[in-house]
Design a protein that fits this description.
The structure is a single chain. With about 140 residues, the protein is α+β, with helices and mostly antiparallel strands. The protein is about 35% helix and about 30% strand. Strands 1-2-3-4-5 form a 5-stranded mixed beta sheet, with helices on both faces. The termini are far apart.
Length: about 140
Amino acid sequence: MQILKLRKEDLKRAYEVIKELRTSLEYEEFTDTVELMQEESGYTMFGLWDKGDIQTYAGVSITTNLYWKKHLFVYELVTKDAMRGNGYGHQMINFLDDYAKMHKCEHIALTSGVQRTDAHRFYEREEFNKAGFTFLK
């Protein structure tokens, strides 16, 4: 098992994982959006590789704002459904925590859909605190 920064040649494999979270996302939209996010916000993709494939995907950016200061924002974090319960998500969170510290971030932040109660339990087990609401119009 290893966690690696993903490259352009890893996008097809990464898409196989991310489409479990973003079910309406087509491959071309995924690649186009990743490229745009990389240009605009330094979006970085990480994959936890095991058994010869990506089992967990994380998409993140380091950003700064007035309320969380410099922080690592997690846009996507997903483990293949068939591979959940193997500790991959926990290992990715530990990796992201180290990555954030290495870049002198004060926090790791993320948003999660209100319907994703299993994910919320996971984040709480990983010592994330509910810090607010996200509103979308």
